[in-house]
Amino acid sequence: MKHELPAYAVLPPCQVTVVDTYGENEKPNGLTVSWTGIAVSDPPHVMIAVRPGRYSHADLCGRGEFTLNIPSENQMQETDYFGITSGRKTDKFADISLTPVPAMHVHAPMIAECPLSLECQVTIRQDIGSHSMFIAKILAVHADERILDENGKINVTAMRPLSYDHAKFWYLGLGSVLGKAFSAGKTLHKSR
Amino acid sequence: MKHELPAYAVLPPCQVTVVDTYGENEKPNGLTVSWTGIAVSDPPHVMIAVRPGRYSHADLCGRGEFTLNIPSENQMQETDYFGITSGRKTDKFADISLTPVPAMHVHAPMIAECPLSLECQVTIRQDIGSHSMFIAKILAVHADERILDENGKINVTAMRPLSYDHAKFWYLGLGSVLGKAFSAGKTLHKSR
Is the ipTM of this complex over 0.90? Predict the structure, then answer.
């Protein structure tokens, strides 16, 4: 039995990412973003949504170059720090133990310790209500060697990304492998 | 040490959803979609990305009304079935054991057995490369009573949503609660 709740933004579990840009005076800055998703497979694009009040918003509207860093669960505290502090008031990277390194294809820093970083260039901005959606082309993917398998593919279970439960404001870890996509439903297919 | 890989669409772990519309002759149809995310908090909007070749694409471009259903891990097989079959060739709901029920605010079916369903109205379509992005307003949220806590809040750990590892094509379960958002980073704040 389902109950109707007032409409709100709920789609659990969300990815947890850190969006990195250079702010004023080339200060590397990071902002935790969970309103994100893949927008296009080919050419690859992501969507991120950021409130206009956030310090990073001007950089995203201006140069429009950023990196999308996917932290591991052992970077949960630092990831949260990027969300609860503002680049207007502090140098977040100087405050914590993560290292900004220059990206290769865009003018933005990447977080060296995050297992996965995407270099992104904004192509479309859409302002709706509380947020600006930035649709951005992925120019390059950087993966730590510890999360690559013997075929050079990303091993998400080794990566240990965080998920965000925005109904209760928890960070969640990754669960077990439950089945194979494009395959698990085949038995239903045969039984028809 | 990071390695640069060719640019591709990777942002693990992705949500797993089933997008429901009425197709030709009012046939309820479902399509598995993992390229999705919250786009705006207020008024609440989601983004879903669908290839133009999919049967549901015409319904999304036309009436633009759909429900976004978040299945539980015990619906993994049926969820996969919605992805590997086409509404052009079969009546997916008739093939499997899930029940389409009419939504209340849009002309689209919801999946009765899914713990969470959002009623959505497309407001903006953006065609880029392989996909159409549909940005849609959330008009209502329907949550099964089994996933609501004593305060009427959604309990994601009871919901058991699936995640999609699109690097290796696995469905993943939900992991443990690791920490509190907007809080976990506070100790770093104090140590400055």
Answer: yes
- Name the phi and psi angles at A87, rounded to 5: -65, -15
Contact A84 B186 (CB under 8 A): yes
Contact A141 B1 (CB under 8 A): no
What's the predicted TM-score (pTM) here? 0.96
Which CATH number does the domain A14-190 belong to among 2.60.40.1180, 2.60.40.420, 2.30.110.10, 3.40.50.620? 2.30.110.10
Tens of pLDDT, residues B77-100: 999 999 999 999 999 999 998 999
- State whether residue A73 is helix, strand or coil: helix
Q: Which amino acid is at B46?
A: V
Residue numbers in A near B77 (CB within 8 A): 179, 184-185, 187-188
| Interchain CB distance below 8 Å, B38 and A39 | no
User: Phi and psi dihedrals of A181, rounded to 5?
Assistant: -70, 155
Each domain of chain B, given as residue ranges in start order, spans 14-190
**DSSP-H helix ranges across chain B:** 56-61, 76-84, 92-95, 156-159, 186-190
